[in-house]
Design a protein that fits this description.
Layout lengths: L6 H8 L4 E5 L5 E4 L1 H7 L3 H4 L10 H5 L2 H12 L1 E9 L5 E12 L5 E9 L1 H12 L1 H9 L5 E6 L4 E4 L1 H6 L18 H4 L1 H13 L6 E5 L7 E11 L6 E8 L3
Antiparallel strand pairs: 1-2, 1-5, 3-4, 4-5, 6-7, 6-10, 8-9, 9-10
């Protein structure tokens, strides 16, 4: 067994959800923890003294991603990546990994790679992409109210046709553009920006909040703004805004 860091040995062995590889500075696997063996189906004999490039897909090996990762860690001290790693069965699993260059008391350098299985998140992303047309159909079937879905950064995910019509946009806002970039005074007002910040930070929904706006040369108009959370995870919040005309 290589000499690492005492407390780190305990972390490596006892971690149940974090899979850990200990490699030399060329990518040769020296140790793995039980969580890795359980998650990927390998035995120690399968991986010890093998280069970690064996875990990458054929396409990623062709593009020399393992070599680039090791080079970056040796040059900068760490590196992070999202990519597929292969289980022993050959099944690719989408993971998030971070590799760190460390040195033990004897001055020996190693690369510690900690891997998080985020396959479920990747599957959700695929589902959302594949469901894109379905989502648009549902949104556009609602013609009385303007709808817009935003992410945690107040970036546009989807709007319905009524939203485009109500605010005279002429075309759909670009996906992942900020709501404040929508060319309409309502979405640029400090009041609306603060309301949305409160929604995102405090997780408090809006219920028919009356807002007024003025377009030069036109009478003041009013709308009612409501919100609903579609997803409340801090790193993946989604909010639906519902806008309806208010009586003047």
């Amino acid at each position: 067994m290589i000499k690492t860091f005492g407390f780190f040995d305990s972390f490596c062995k006892n971690a149940k959800h974090n899979t850990v590889l200990v490699m030399d500075t060329t990518g040769i696997i020296l140790e793995v923890n039980q969580a890795f063996l359980s998650a990927f189906g390998y035995s120690n004999d399968d991986v010890i003294n093998q280069n970690f490039r064996m875990l990458f897909t054929e396409e990623d090996r062709r593009q020399k991603k393992p070599e680039m990762e090791i080079q970056k860690v040796n040059t900068e001290g760490s590196g992070a990546d999202d990519n597929y790693l292969l289980q022993k069965s050959g099944k690719p699993v989408w993971v998030n990994g971070e590799s760190v260059l460390v040195t033990n008391e004897e001055g020996e350098a190693y690369v510690i790679k900690i891997i998080h299985n985020i396959e479920a998140q990747k599957q959700l992303e695929r589902f959302l992409i594949e469901s894109n047309d379905f989502i648009e159909t549902i949104l556009d079937s609602i013609t009385e109210k303007a709808l817009i879905i935003l992410d945690a950064g107040m970036k546009v995910i989807k709007v319905n046709s009524r939203f485009v019509e109500m605010f005279g946009l002429g075309q759909q806002p670009l996906e992942e553009s900020r709501i404040s970039s929508i060319p309409h005074p309502l979405w640029n007002s400090p009041e609306v920006k603060q309301l949305l910040r409160n929604v995102l930070v405090k997780n408090e929904a809006l219920h028919n909040v009356r807002l007024e706006y003025t377009i030069p040369g036109q009478p003041t108009k009013a709308v009612l703004l409501s919100s609903k959370f579609l997803h409340t995870h801090d790193t993946d919040k989604r909010i639906l805004l519902v806008v309806s005309p208010a009586q003047q």
